[in-house]
Description:
- The protein is mainly α and 294 residues long.
- The protein contains 12 helices and 2 strands; from the N terminus they run ααααααααααββαα.
- It has helices spanning 34-39, 42-64, 73-85, 88-120, 122-135, 144-151, 155-179, 183-191, 196-207, 209-233, 243-252, 256-284; strands at 236-237, 240-241.
- A two-stranded antiparallel ribbon has the order 1-2.
- It starts with 33 loop residues before the first helix and ends in a 10-residue tail after the last helix.
Amino acid sequence: MNAMTRSPPPARPEAEFTVTAPVGLGDVAKPLPFIEKIFENAAVRRGLILIGLALVWEIYGRWLDSPLTFPTFLDTMTALKEGIASGVIPKRMAVTLETLIIGYAIGLVIAALLTTVAVTSRVGTDLLSTFTAMFNPLPAIALLPLALLWFGLGRPSLVFVIVHSVLWAVALNMHSGFLSVSETQRMAGRTFGLKGLRFVLGILIPAAFPAILAGLKIGWAFAWRTLIAAELVFGVSSGQGGLGWYIFENRNTLDTAAVFAGLLSVMAVGLLVEAVIFRIIEARTVRRWGMQRG
């Protein structure tokens, strides 16, 4: 039979059906109870942990009943309040943070330069590998005697040990992140003619940013604790003492509550940087890009 004379296929009758939920299935989308909504908030969960630690601290301090060796949480908060009201703790914290920012920034710049040279040449890779193998295991606090000889008793010595503590941790994580970038992404960058610094900024840094961010966190933690330890050793920076020196002074006067207040200030800065600054960076970069789970 000729194709032109074939009869059209039968038309399928149209019909409308009402879809109903199966019996016994229950609610597909059910709002969470109020308690579960609260516990979904990470800030609330961390706050409850801190409250629990404070309660344990207060109970243990009252049971021990020895303010000279272990003051209660309320006594420590009283000393902290007095230190803030008198302006001593804010002043000491400002000195410490200023020194930290200078050393941290210098360490990041040197780490970025070394890593850029390492990913663009074999000689740079060998140079970075050799330096990290030599200096990364060396504690920054062990360089304090040399820092005192070279730079004297002041801020340059503190900056020197901070740079050492930041540099190798950030460089190692940055270089590892660059090496983990897939060959597909590298070829895409070369296709667009990216070379040298443009290749690093346009391809390697965005692709390796989770590892870079981890290195920034590690470098910050190393720098913060190194600086406090350095201030505890020789303390005064450019004629002014920081938080570490504040702890050292109150230890000499046997004001243990003030010592604990200084320690709380150190931990508060760490919590603030982690919960605010790095959280914002994560939310606007790796989480928005889908490279990290929330």
